[in-house]
Design goal:
Blueprint: E1 14-19, H1 20-34, E2 38-39, E3 41-42, H2 44-48, H3 52-62, E4 66-69, H4 72-82, E5 89-92, H5 102-106, E6 111-115, H6 118-128, E7 137-140, H7 153-163, H8 165-168, E8 170-174, H9 186-201, E9 207-208, E10 225-226, E11 249-261, E12 266-267, E13 273-274, E14 279-284, E15 306-309, E16 312-315, E17 325-328, E18 342-346, H10 352-357, H11 363-369, E19 375-379
Parallel strand pairs: 1-19, 2-10, 3-4, 4-5, 5-6, 6-7, 7-8, 8-9
Antiparallel strand pairs: 1-11, 11-14, 11-18, 12-13, 14-17, 15-16
Helix pairs in contact: 1-3, 3-4, 6-7
Length: about 375
């Protein structure tokens, strides 16, 4: 069964504008910061919601030659999006998935599993050592996340000594930060030290540790390869400081209707917000089914997110519905908010980090949740 096509402009209630030029510029900026190391691109979760088939070629054209995905299916999509033409290295972060066929699922698409356990390494060794030329892989060492990754360096040393990393096709040694967005967190230094210990045991294998926020740590744990994700798509890798990245996503939603209500009347489900004055409301054609956080609207005693209408900020009020949300437009001229006009939820004025934080979530969640009912417009 094929995925339903995205709606046309006339059929959609909102426009998701994706600036591929800004995406490429963000990658180039991070690549300059990584030099002389290399800069990869994390394009998992449908390239953080903007679309693998658009993002991967744009990043490749900018110079990216290393891509990270989470799942096998994503890796196959990246490979298809980049063919024909110069090939790239595609790493599957979730590892050698249980039940997957190393030949049919990885090698056939020229994908590199990121081996994350002793059991996975044993399975990979049984496959790789029977091949005329070893297929490539990466090794994930756990330095504190306790999620994926080989936990015992001694076991890894024994396994690699038994076969040799060349016979296993090991092309990268990597780990993952726990709290790199918190530059003063002492665990960052602990993880860097643990990773340095691993690198010393496996000299000659390229190494990569830094994610988006890790790239900006004072210790500069750049090593041979960085793998930004969130920062590429306009998220701030340095929370609390100005965002060094360009915005990539803008979201404009149509106003369906406006109405006046009197002071004391409530708005939306479960009477979460009550008008403190005579209030003009604008109902927008998007809700949590479109990826907007359910907590984006203000409730009694709690502010929510803003939207921009006619160049001015207007607060969302009341509980988010499945398909609708409501903005307070009382302070706008009446002709500024009308059916058919647009409200911008994301863009140059309100970025993903602000909208997400004021909705009780994180920008990663917001980006990767943006739904398929928007008309998508690629620029740049």
């Amino acid at each position: 069964m094929q995925t339903p096509p995205l709606p046309s402009l006339s059929q959609s209630s909102g426009v998701l504008t994706i600036d591929l030029g800004a995406l490429a510029d963000n990658w180039r900026a991070l690549a300059r910061r990584a030099a002389p190391g290399e800069c990869a691109a994390v394009v998992k979760a449908d390239a953080y919601g903007i679309g693998i088939e658009a993002a991967a070629p744009a990043l490749h054209a900018a110079g990216c030659r290393h891509f990270f995905v989470a799942q096998l299916s994503e890796g196959a999509r990246v490979r298809a999006a980049l063919a024909p033409g110069p090939q790239a290295q595609i790493y599957v972060l979730n590892g050698l998935q249980a039940g997957a066929d190393p030949q049919a699922d990885y090698r056939a698409h020229d994908l590199m599993p990121v081996i994350g356990s002793e059991e996975e390494l044993a399975r990979w060794a049984a496959f790789a050592t029977r091949q005329p030329s070893p297929p490539p892989c990466a090794i994930h060492i756990d330095t504190g996340m306790n999620r994926l990754g080989v936990g015992s360096l001694d076991a890894l040393v024994r396994m690699l000594a038994r076969h040799g990393h060349e016979a296993l096709g090991v092309k990268l040694l990597m780990s993952h930060f726990v709290s790199s967005e918190e530059p003063d967190n002492p665990l960052n230094a602990v993880q860097i030290a643990r990773f340095d210990e691993a690198r010393a045991l496996f000299r000659g294998i390229p190494a990569g540790l830094a994610n988006s926020s890790g790239i900006f740590l004072a210790q500069r744990p750049i090593f041979d390869l960085i793998r930004p994700g969130y920062a590429l798509y306009g998220g701030n890798p340095t929370p609390g400081a100005p965002n060094p990245m360009k915005p990539v996503v803008a979201l404009d939603i149509a106003i369906q209707q406006t109405r006046w209500i009197e002071a004391g009347e409530s708005v939306g489900y479960n009477q979460q917000w009550t008008a403190p004055r005579r209030t003009r409301l604008a109902t927008l054609l998007a809700g949590y089914a479109d990826g907007l956080p359910r907590g984006a609207g203000a409730a009694q005693g709690r502010a929510g997110a803003d939207v921009v209408i006619a160049g001015r900020r207007c607060p969302l009020v009341g509980r988010m519905s499945m398909d609708l949300c409501i903005a307070d437009v009382t302070d706008l001229p009446e002709d500024a908010a009308h059916p058919g006009a647009s409200a911008q939820l994301l863009g140059a004025t309100i970025g993903v980090d602000e909208f997400a934080a004021r909705s009780g979530t994180i920008g990663y969640h917001l980006l990767t949740s943006l739904g398929r009912r928007y008309h998508r417009r690629y620029i740049g």
